[in-house]
Amino acid sequence: MERLTRDQFNEKSAFWLLAVAMATLPFTRFLMLPIAILLMVVFLTDNLFISHFKTIREKKLLLPFFVIISLFVLSLIGATYSTNVAKAISDWECKLWFLAAPIGLLPLYGRISLKQIHILLIVFILSVTATAIGNFVISAVSYARTGELSQFFYMNATHFFGEKATHPSYLSMYCTTAWVLSVILLVNNNLSLLKGIRILLIAALVILPADIILLQSKAGILLFALVFPCILIYAVRKKALPLWAGIAVIAGCLGLGATIVTSGVVPTDRLYEMGRQLEEENTVNPYNGTMQRVVVWQTSCEVAGENLPFGTGTGDVTDELCRRYEAKGYTYILDKRLNCHNQYLQHLVGLGIPGLLTLLLFICIPLWEAVRQKDFLQGMWWLLVAGNFLVESMLETRAGSNFIPLMTVLLLLYGRATRSAEAAPPNNP
User: Fold this and answer.
1) What 8-state DSSP symbol labels residue 267?
2) Backbone angles phi, psi at 191, to 5 degrees
3) What is the three-class DSSP state of 336?
4) What is the C-alpha separation between 165 and 41, in angstroms, rounded?
5) How large is the angle between the packed helices 376-391 and 343-372, nearest 10 degrees?
6) How far is CA 143 from CA 146, 147, 158, 256, in A?
7) H or E stretch including 303?
8) Could you read off the pLDDT of 219-251 as tens digits, one per residue?
9) Are 125 and 178 within 8 A, CB to CB?
10) Do 264 and 276 contact (CB within 8 A), yes or no?
11) Which residues contact 42 (CB under 8 A, 6 or more apart)?
12) What does 32-67 look like in DSSP terms, one character per residue?
């Protein structure tokens, strides 16, 4: 009886810690470190290590368990041959959720209910939507005071915490993930949602895309454009949306988008500047985000090639890149001390071939399971992750390194729990 009581306490503690994480992540990342530590403490102090490991092994979760943790372990190894020790220590502390998520969440398989996972996902959706609404309100107040339409766009659309605000690329990823989750939950015929929650999720379907447009993250808009038709097809196949309505929605969105761009109501300076610099091949001390990435990727490839097979060490990536920036005269990029802005290159530069292979396994193994199990939600998740990795070093900031392992493990548990519920025989009256 004592063990059962302890188990229940640990499971409830883990659930509430996860709920706090989901509720606060879109607003601030500063609570995520203590939550990660507390989550590990909950499962490392109950003296049930063998039981937890047995759960992971019996439920065939060993492979994702070790692959996710290996990203944290590699960060520790990369710190050992880094010259910049302070940066290396900061890197593995930044990636602590790659340790906390598998240790703290995977043993919950079969213990955390599908209803509880639904609650966690809904909390995340509502939190992201609240963040978007908060940004709208602050922008509207600033616009009323200044009369400048720019208050609604780009960095001005991420008002919380000033200079420490979440970057538009990361917030766009949160919004797209929350939008996909909203659709999945709404079309799930087996899920009984309270009327109020259903109304809020429907509102999120409108608010979140608007926020993505205001953020003006080119990668965020492009990835949402890729996800959008996939979601409509999913809704049609689930018979939650008639085929004619799906076609009408796509046609209407294309028409609305073309009207907005041509009318000049929405500032498109970043898009025009991107096109102009690409046409001129302006790679001499570029200041546009797209061209910055081009020269950063070129420089990253050069540094990676010179430091194979094991890379520079996690603490020395930015220092090595900055030496190259200085030598090439990229003063604007040098002042910003830009990293690789590509997670694949970031792992290749810092950890060499082992780092890149592990990162690819981190993506490919669950993606293969999603394809094999026809898990649409996981497929969309890994499309977002893999796509964002192409244009941002997502795991080098807490906004990405907290969110991605946490959501990866949670969606893994959700997919397994959903399939188990669908395979279970119906209860006889």
Assistant:
1) -
2) -105, 120
3) helix
4) 29
5) 170
6) 5, 5, 14, 23
7) helix 289-306
8) 899 999 999 999 988 888 887 777 766 677 667
9) yes
10) no
11) 10, 13, 14, 17, 104
12) HHHHHHHHHHHHHSSS-HHHHHHHHHHTT-HHHHHH
> Can you give the pTM of this predicted structure?
0.90
- Nearest of 399, 351, 392 to residue 219 by alpha carbon: 392
Distance of alpha carbon 15 from alpha carbon 18, whole angstroms: 5
CB burial string 328-366: b at 16+ within 10 A, e below: bebeebbeeebbbbbbbbbbbbbbbebbbebbebbbeeb
Backbone torsions φ then ψ of 330, nearest 5 degrees: -85, 70
Q: Token pair of 409, please?
A: 């493990």
Would you give the end-to-end CA distance of the chain in angstroms? 31
User: How far apart (Å, rounded) are the C-alpha atoms in residues 315 and 119?
Assistant: 38
Read off the amino acid at residue 139.
S
Residues 424 and 54: beta-carbon distance below 8 Å? no
Could you give the CA distance from residue 162 to residue 157 in angstroms, rounded to a whole number? 11
Pair 318, 339: CB distance under 8 Å: yes
pLDDT in tens, 126-168: 999 999 999 899 889 988 898 888 788 877 777 776 556 778 8
Region for residue 190 given its phi and psi (left: phi exceeds 0; alpha: psi -120 to 50; beta: otherwise): alpha
Domain ranges of the chain: 118-267
Contacts by residues 357-364 (CB-CB < 8 Å, ≥ 24 positions apart): 358/67, 358/70, 358/71, 358/74, 359/71, 359/389, 361/67, 362/67, 362/68, 362/71, 363/389
Chain-centroid distance, C-alpha 415 = 17
Helical residues (DSSP H) of 25-153, grouped into ranges: 32-44, 49-58, 62-80, 85-94, 97-105, 114-146
